[in-house]
């Protein structure tokens, strides 16, 4: 079981993993006075499903944007598969094997589902200007790409939609299409930004199954942002918790559920302050005195 | 009323200089706007570069007109690079602002006194096109049939012009059906999605800008050789907007949209113009409503009204697919 690989890893922020595919060091991103991301050190284990959770505004999506080249950090470095990726343009990041999806799905509405899929294939000869004019240079490759796209569509049970406009798909189907399209790039690591958001419960199960397949059948690494803790506990091998731009906790789903820091981050710090009956009496008495004082002050002209 | 002459005028406008020039301009815009989603509002600048590139090479540098064509196309490539490098990384609106400014800068420069030595200032340049007519294989004439009877020289540029339209259409058709065209369309739909799939969006936008600009410059070349003159005020921003009108009228992102749009646009203009003039001549139009001198403006109003109606009842243009348009509403 691959999950054993992380069994010996201690549950603390920035802990080293036995076989990291992604290593992040001291990445910061500030928007004016706000520090959106401030990650000292992070490693993501190869071939695992890692969940990135945190309250709204924790910097999860900004962190995704930085790693995938859609935003530039103020400082920091990161390595993917042993290669320095810091500051690389988004399309180069994708070609290196790190492909992302978006929180708001980006289906290419006026392209058919099949064309959406075929676009994902990398190294297409027909995408070069002069080769594009010579169909014999890319016909065979196009054929192979189409076969691969059809196989993937069948796996995602979207083959009956293959010739529809992507704009005609439902929200959940678009999520499926986006995930399938990302796989056309043949990435080593897939980064899913809220893959379950806005998907109906029936489709959630099938999406979860597909995410597990990425790890179990294809050996890909998955990092995903998610809010639903049931989903996180169900499929992830490792959970990273962000709050206010920092990584505040790491661990297996079980470790995380018991971590008081995580509960604080989600619910606020004093939500569970002990308050016995006597203490409450004292507090109420203090309040009453304060109110009495204020009334006295008001009486004096 | 002389209906025959009204219809003949309209029929001639459908194959004439303006139809060719605007078809080429619109095919270029179709690459920019229709397929890639680039808001180029400076197509007039590319036409000006095409026309002046040819004329200046012949008149000032005393070279052959064939070298002039080459220089004109090269200059269009350079212009596209100049406009694209600073703007294509930004949002689409910035390209619109820069291109409209760029085309006006070109027009004001060529009509300025400072560059008058090269460009002929506000009067422009002429007598540079002889080289083009010397190789005319047609002699005597007239050629053609029905309303389309032309002298040998006119027939020569009409043939060359429509050949350029056909070649450009074929080129664009082949390209947009290839994987290259698929990338362009994906950029139009969502450039971040294209980027996330490993496509170098900047490079493709640049290629599209250059291709559409060069096709636009061919329009400028046809304008120059057909009139045997170039004048700065023939390249005002109106040209760009007429080309957009033709494109949207015919149907954006359609192979024959720009050609159909350009032909219909000029046929309509000629038809309303001839009709109003005939009516004026027969005193069917009270002087109080339209005087003879106002006809030139009134025809634009009528065509504008027609276009507004078209947008209401057929927003996808003549060749467009309504199903595609409705996807935007989601």
Structure description:
The complex is a heterodimer of chains A (301) and B (330). By secondary structure, chain A is an alpha/beta fold. Chain A folds into two domains: 2-107 and 169-276, 3-Layer(aba) Sandwich (Rossmann fold); 113-165, no CATH class. Chain A has eleven helices and ten strands. Chain A has helices at residues 60-67, 90-95, 113-119, 129-132, 139-155, 171-184, 201-216, 229-235, 253-258, 260-267, 277-299; strands spanning 20-31, 34-45, 49-53, 75-80, 83-84, 98-100, 189-193, 221-225, 238-243, 246-251. In chain A, a hairpin with a 2-residue loop joins β9 and β10 (246-251). Chain A starts with 19 loop residues before the first strand and ends with a helix. The model of chain A has no long low-confidence stretch (mean pLDDT 87). Chain B has a single domain, classed as ABC transporter involved in vitamin B12 uptake, BtuC (Orthogonal Bundle). Chain B has 15 helices and four strands. Chain B has a two-stranded antiparallel sheet with strand order 1-4. In chain B, strands 2-3 form a two-stranded antiparallel sheet. In chain B, α2 packs parallel to α8 (152-176), α2 (17-35) crosses α13 (257-281) and α13 packs across α14 (295-313). The model of chain B has no long low-confidence stretch (mean pLDDT 91). The chains are: A alpha/beta (301), B mainly alpha (330). Chains A and B meet through α2, α3, α4 and α6 of A and α8, α9, α10 and α15 of B.
List keywords for this structure.
heterodimer, A: 301 residues, alpha/beta, Rossmann fold, six-stranded mixed beta sheet, 39% helix, B: 330 residues, mainly alpha, ABC transporter involved in vitamin B12 uptake, BtuC, two-stranded antiparallel ribbon
Summarize, please.
The complex is a heterodimer of chains A (301) and B (330). By secondary structure, chain A is α/β, with parallel strands linked by helices. In chain A, 39% of the residues lie in helices and 21% in strands.
